[in-house]
Write a structure and sequence with these properties.
Oligomer: heterodimer
Number of strands of chain B: 4
Strand content of chain B: under 5%
Number of domains of chain A: 2
Order of helices and strands of chain B: HHHHHHEEEHHHHEHHHHH
Strand order of the largest sheet of chain B: 1-4
CATH class of the largest domain in chain A: Alpha Beta
Number of helices of chain A: 15
Structural class of chain A: alpha/beta
Distance between the termini of chain A: 61 Å
Radius of gyration of chain A: 21 Å
CATH superfamily of the largest domain in chain A: Response regulator
Largest interface: A-B, 55 and 47 residues
Largest sheet of chain B: 2 strands, antiparallel
Strand order of the largest sheet of chain A: 9-8-10-11-12-15-16
Distance between the termini of chain B: 14 Å
Strand content of chain A: 5-15%
Radius of gyration of chain B: 21 Å
Chain lengths: 427, 358
Amino acid sequence: MKRKFTALLTAGIMAASPALADLVVPNLSYRTGAYGANGTQYADGFNDYFTLLNERDGGIGGEKIQVPECETAYNTEKGVECYEATKDSGALVYNPLSTGITYQLIPKVSVDKKVLYTPGYGRTSAKNGKVFEWIFNAPANYWDGASVAIKYLLDENGGDLNGKKIALVYHNSAYGKEPIRTLQDLAEKHGFELTELPVDAPGQEQKSQWLQIRRDRPDYVIMWGWGVMNQAAIQEAANIRFPMENFIGIWWSGSEVDVKPVGAQANGYKALTFHGVGTDYPIYDDLQEYVIEPGKASQGGEHVGSVLYSRGMYAALVISEAILKAQELAGTSEINPEQLRDGFEQLDITPERLTELGLPDFGPEIKMTCDNHGGSGMSRMQQWDAEAGKWNLITEFTEPDKEVLEPLITEDSEAYAKEAGVTPRDC
Amino acid sequence: MLYREAGDFKTSYRDDGQTFPIRLDRVAYYAVVIVAFMIVPFVINDYWANAVVVPFLIYAIAALGLNILTGYAGQVSLGTGGFMAVGAYAVYKLMTTFPEINIVIHILLAGGITAIVGMLFGLPSLRIKGFYLAVATLAAQFFLVWLFNKVPWFYNYSASGQITAPTRTVFGLAVTGPSTSAAAKYLICLVFVFILAWVARNLTRGTLGRKWMAIRDMDIAAEIIGVNPLTAKLSAFAVSSFFVGVSGALLFSVYLGAAEVGEAFGINKSFLVLFMIIIGGLGSIFGSFAGAAFMVLMPVVLKNLLVGQFGWATDLAAHFELMIVGALIVFFLIAEPHGLARLWALTKEKLRLWPFPH
């Protein structure tokens, strides 16, 4: 009895590992907890794109892709456990969809030599490939987002934000604090006044923050929220009748699950994005044929075409393109993480290539080099149309303010290099 | 038959008062210690260390600490997460400010700093008790988390408010930072657990422990027989916070490597450690270990069993895991309200009589 129990316990602790032959791209997802509603859609998009490649093309370069999933619940300790459980299975690249877990993994992947791809989240200064050899965060990072949002407001105000009041409502965590430094510098440059309003996780309770907004009457509110915090914030904004067109969310605060619960009052809410949305792209015909109809879609395919589904798919697309590039460079289809890193560093996803992949004008051009791991940083604005129930793109892809961002990225990455004892590479 | 006291003669008071009076227990204890120190470090791999053993050892220290306060001295505390955060931020500030000093000293100092903070928040215990004290310690939890989020000095003005542990070595071996080997992580935690458990055991059966237990059982009676409630309660807070601080320091520096106060040391952590000692057994050293093992291992075992062996969807498995762990907690507490330690004690009672019970 006791021996049986011990055997069961050992079997239980030892994770089942996939066969070593395939390309392994673990999906550290979260479908439970306060952020589950958002994490599920992203994970589905991520899984489905690889399923499509496996079913339609037989994988990448003839190698099947395995996407073992591991539930993190957006919790850093579980994230570490998932990383440790999957890293010896030949994993090539991680995409944990959590800034907190990313911060945990940055030092670990640098030692274990795994690629960490964090599109639109994670540590901003990882853009500096000289210091962060294994981390990539193209096409855009938080500082890019902050800068593009301010640029948009500048355009709306004829290039002058002097004396305007802008409030930042943010998730009180590593994620939410990321843009503060950039916004402070931008405030100095453009002469607007910045108010910082932290919201503690998970963020259902924001009455006092919005009371302050009601009292101070800022001209604009920018939000860095995630999970239930987004819905609560948009609801509170509607309650105090804050004009929705002056309320801008980062890309993580701009999905259907965030605005739908608020109903018609959410009409006009704006959010940044770095990719297209909806099912009006040729790729969805293939997806329908090879993935959804045969019943292979992740979790039944109920979120196909949503903002976060598209983003998960886009992340998978960039990873698969990097794998393709790596295979080309290495001359072998069975690549290892070092070769994948080289693939990422020479990645160039042109608009033509996107059209070829069935996603014309879906994202900005991504071109990475050894010292630029963050691409161009371009993003665009979308606006919610509550009546039609869809997001409309209202600007073209906009470049961030490099003049402000580059010194900040250099400063922060150098601070990291000093703290972690990393000698920057020559590029 | 095998497990018995008969024939195990004690000829001195010292022998009579030892922690493991039964020979088989003593042998088992030495065997466990030898295996833990001499064999496990050579076979442990990254997964076992990071997912199972290191968190178990660190939470065992936290559970020991809380057990001293709640189990032995009877002061309910919901501030464990906050005190762990004090340990973590203290060790972070120390190791970045004085990089040349050994990390072990920093971890002990972090425990000391936590002890002072714990005593400060223990002051209300002189006037209030029970639920009211729980609420006062809850205030400590929220205040400390708020403080570490609010004041940038604590996180060295990093952009994201995250603290990251740089590499530090003991005898030339890295014990913190990314390049730490699984064995080094395991050993540093094991050494702390071993020494602290030994200290806890000997404190609790000495004068101090008896004072704590007197206060727990009836504070007025204790005061009448000459126990000073001020020193007894504050010493319980200090010792307990020292343990909790050390575990917080280890959790951050050795196990996580990077932490964010709201996420790593939130109220959930306080509840987690409280559940550990309730399930393990209040007022028991063994119970602290059993509770920590239960709460750390159960989710990992279930996750791997449901997802890895049965191939369930991860979200379904995650939901079931919560339900199964919850149900097991309820089951164990109904079966034995005094926790796993009591269950273990009863098993030993029965074993002594087996196969001829009365």
